[in-house]
Design a protein that fits this description.
Distance between the termini: 14 Å
Radius of gyration: 27 Å
CATH class of the largest domain: Mainly Beta
Structural class: mainly beta
Number of strands: 33
Oligomer: single chain
Number of domains: 2
Strand order of the largest sheet: 5-32-31-30-29
CATH topology of the largest domain: Methylamine Dehydrogenase, Chain H
Length: 484
């Protein structure tokens, strides 16, 4: 929905004109208008006296141009309630919506933990929003309702009106699905899973092995696409995938996948991947190993067929992200964050040829002047500039984990600068951060340490200006996980 805000001057002119029409007619006053009073002090009661200023009269046929009406959209704020430990978010997710004008108003208070709508989910809900902010999409995570898809019309406050039918994707991808909304005009969502099994030959078992008994770890992925409009399954495919023979012989395998992203042409789906490794001599988990180049699974779309695995020559580490969208299409390419890179997180680029573009080198350690940068969440606006949530080796240890920060980034300039107009404390925890609301070139975000009040902040990505907005009322051990 859109809200129209009329400023005071516009309203005054409308009321004045209405009064003139009701009070008089040129047929009975000889063309003189007794309702017009000499308000500008020029000794003449004329049209300029009907306008807010004499300068405006000359500029616009007697009255000033008030300019375009101000438009507003819904901004939905989500909070994750504490379960057993501060910041775990396992007590459920509550959402509350305000207009963008209210979100920018520091006198407004938002208290989702007392006044919000409970988004169905056993643990932290996985939320998505339509591009205009009018609809919230949710797939419940874990528990009896895990995998249930629901859709809500945003009516403001805690009024989220369920629309359409529910559907469960649990039969396809389990009750704790990793899902995302594709950027195709709010038409489609996609959820994924991977299952693995260590394979050995006939000469041994995992309990009694020799050096040559380990063969590889099999990796089976499942991908489902969901019609968000009609609440029905579009497609589902399973595939056995793999790495190179050399990598698999060393014990490497894809252990987790997430964050499907549609390319600009709309004919390929990219799925982020995390790698793990076993010791081939024992088939036990290996935690001290060389980090391979970042990898992504590529599928034909919408058929979900012909899986291949591509590898970055620039970044190393994982590309599956965690709770938030980890890759975005911009200007014909897909830009993807990686995590766990020994050189600090990169923003990587996949070109129109569906391969990593190794000429694009955007390292966040170098850009931010830190070590061990780790992307927690990020979102670009349509201009290629955006906001990034991150931590680094110098982050303080807070009540729930390492301290987080926000940075303003530019994909084309490959630059990143910490946003210093936002307050930071050791308890500002962003590991579970999910969403940024984008409205034109403005990005809305939430700032509040675990268990403490905070604010909405609005970042103008063109100028870098930061506006402190509505106050966020927190609850003990709870935290805010984003804006949509």
């Amino acid at each position: 929905m859109k809200h129209i805000f009329l400023n005071f001057r516009t309203l005054a002119v409308i009321l004045l004109v209405f009064g003139l029409v009701a009070a008089c007619s040129s047929d009975d006053n000889g063309g003189e208008d007794p309702a017009v009073v000499d308000t500008d002090g020029d000794g003449i009661a004329d049209a300029s006296d009907e306008c807010p200023s004499e300068a405006g009269a000359a500029a616009n046929n007697g009255c000033p141009d008030e300019g375009p009406e101000e438009e507003s959209r819904w901004i939905t704020i989500a909070g994750a309630r504490m379960g057993e430990n501060p910041g775990d978010g396992n007590g459920g997710t509550l959402i509350y919506s305000v207009t963008s004008a209210e979100a920018k108003d520091p006198t407004v208070q938002i208290d989702p933990f007392n006044d919000g709508f409970v988004a169905p989910s056993n643990r932290t809900a996985r939320l998505q929003a339509s591009e205009d902010g009018n609809t919230i999409f949710n797939i419940s995570y874990a528990g009896d309702t895990g995998g249930n898809y629901t859709k809500y019309i945003v009516n403001g406050g805690n009024d989220f009106e369920q629309t359409g039918s529910e559907i469960s994707i649990a039969p396809y991808v389990g009750s704790a699905p990793r899902w995302i909304k594709l950027f195709d005009g709010d038409q489609t969502g996609s959820a994924v899973y991977v299952s693995t099994e260590h394979q050995v030959d006939d000469n041994g078992t995992p309990d009694n092995v020799t050096d040559d008994t380990y063969i590889r770890t099999s990796q089976t992925i499942g991908v489902v696409t969901l019609n968000l409009v009609d609440s029905q399954i579009n497609n589902f495919q399973e595939h056995e995938i793999g790495l190179s023979e050399e990598e698999e012989a060393l014990g490497y395998y894809i252990s987790r996948i997430d964050m499907p992203t549609l390319n600009a042409a709309g004919d390929k789906l990219y799925i982020g991947a995390r790698l793990s490794k076993v010791d081939p001599t024992t088939i036990e988990s290996d935690s001290d190993y060389e980090i391979l180049g970042s990898k992504t699974i590529v599928l034909d779309y919408p058929s979900l067929l012909n899986p291949t695995v591509i590898t970055s020559g620039v970044g190393h580490g994982n590309t599956n992200g965690y709770r938030s969208i980890n890759s975005f299409e911009y200007n014909g390419a897909v830009y993807q964050a990686n995590q766990g890179d020994p050189e600090g997180s990169y923003i990587l680029r996949i070109g129109a040829d569906n391969q990593y573009d190794d000429s694009y080198d955007f390292n966040l350690d170098e850009a931010l002047g830190v070590t061990g940068a780790y992307v927690l969440a990020w979102r670009p606006a349509a201009n290629g500039k955006g906001v990034l949530a991150y931590r680094h080796d110098g982050s303080a240890e807070g009540v729930a984990g390492q301290q987080g920060f926000f940075a303003l980034i530019d994909l084309e300039a490959r630059s990143a600068t910490q946003i210093t107009d936002i307050p930071y404390t050791a308890d500002f925890y962003l590991f579970q951060y999910q969403g940024f609301a984008v409205d034109g070139t403005e990005i809305y975000l939430t700032e509040a340490p675990v268990g403490q009040n905070g604010n909405i902040y609005v970042v103008d990505t063109e100028t870098g200006a930061v506006t402190q907005g509505a106050e966020l009322i927190n609850a003990v051990g709870s935290h805010f996980i984003g804006a949509w």
